[in-house]
Amino acid sequence: MYHFDYVTENTCSQIISMDLDGNIVKNVRFLGGCPGNLKAISTLVDGWTVEQIEEKLQGITCGRKPTSCGDQLARAVRTAYEAQQREQAQSFGER
Hints:
The protein is α+β, with helices and mostly antiparallel strands.
């Protein structure tokens, strides 16, 4: 299991924490933002793949902001997945 914290931009939430098991996203937690909505999003996406989250949430905006907590989650899971892949490649190379 790979843990990742993502610092958000232009949203009320400040940090998105998650665990990855390959491309499966688990245990999403938001720091800040609208608690009820973000708990719902976290529950709904638990067990989804990075690609499923991107497909459903990428590009959603909030009011006049160019992004939203959902859009930031889509960005976060992709960033986390790529970081996980780099870390695995590095540890494989050290063997």
